[in-house]
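cron nightly-structures :: item 1 of 1
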Amino acid sequence: MKNTVRNLTAIALVALLGACATSSPDVISRQDAQVAAQVQDGTVISIRSVTVDGSQSGMGAAAGGIVGVAAGTGGSTIQREKIGLGVLAGVAGALAGNAIERMATKEEAVEIIVQLRNGERRAIVQAKGNETLMAGDPVIIVTSGGKVRVSRAPR
């Protein structure tokens, strides 16, 4: 039983870590490397801290439910008494797994309002990166593969 629960717990952790993603401007996905991107010049009008809500892909709930059922039934021959306990433990595990996934994928971010040179304005939300931007800073907006990021303009 201990090995079964340990293996299922490991599978649940791998599933949760696989669901983690970032919107950091300092992390570029492999498919965006060596791809031409559109670049626009602008100036930061305002910036404010926001929180990007965590995802709920269902992987956390599924993994938590499996671990809960295995722990609740003892992982061996199922008796009637253990079925009820297994169902309750599965539901509790699914709820816990969903909450863990949501908290693990939650990000502190910034909403940046940028005035483009042509007068248009853009609002971009991205994870806090290594750069600290302030109102009045010259920036570039890089758009690639449907994703957008803001960084300080080169001098």
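cron nightly-structures :: done
The two ends are 62 Å apart (CA to CA).
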